[in-house]
Design brief:
Blueprint (H helix, E strand, L loop, with lengths): L1 H9 L1 H8 L6 H26 L13 H23 L1 H5 L2 H24 L12 H23 L12
């Protein structure tokens, strides 16, 4: 894989992201990645907390627009995440924790989709916060986002190789 990593690292987008002093290079990509995380994990966590009994006076349906924000955050993170990997492919793709983070994000997306289905019941269905399965799903999704965030933060400190030649 080193020849592929070396090719990506030598490309102008990778070099620009890593080496440019411009605020629009690595700092902006990292900032947008953090914003995407806030939208994705924050919005879905607000829904999860409501389903777990926090702010009972707020109807669950009133939080439905948060799911749109969560998906915006997901796509923002997908694009900026690809840019971050392009900047440091060796660092990311040789770190097992990176794959763990991706697995946690994939699990979080699946759980978010399932949670959305639980909350989309018709008028005859029980309130979603009253079902045990929905509460378990909400708690699992919260835990998944916490684990994904920790994994993402640890990526900065747990790599074995930064670039092909280093």
């Amino acid at each position: 894989m080193d020849p592929l990593f070396a090719w990506v690292e030598a490309s102008w987008p990778s070099r620009w992201l890593r080496e440019s002093l411009s605020i629009f290079a690595f700092p902006m990509v990292l900032t947008l990645h953090t914003l995407g995380l806030a939208l994705l994990a924050g919005s879905s966590s607000a829904l999860c907390l409501r389903l777990l009994g926090v702010a009972r006076q707020v109807p669950v349906g009133a939080l439905a627009p948060l799911l749109s924000l969560a998906w915006c955050g997901f796509w923002l993170n997908a694009v900026t995440g690809l840019a971050l990997v392009w900047a440091y492919p060796t660092k990311a793709l040789t770190n097992l924790l990176f794959y763990g983070k991706l697995a946690l994000v994939a699990l979080g997306v699946v759980l978010l989709l399932r949670l959305r289905r639980h909350c989309a019941g018709g008028p005859a269905s029980p309130a979603p916060e009253r079902t045990r399965a929905t509460r378990r799903l909400a708690a699992l999704l919260l835990g998944t986002w916490v684990a994904a965030i920790f994994a993402g933060r640890f990526l900065a400190y747990t790599y074995q190789r930064l670039l092909v030649g280093h």
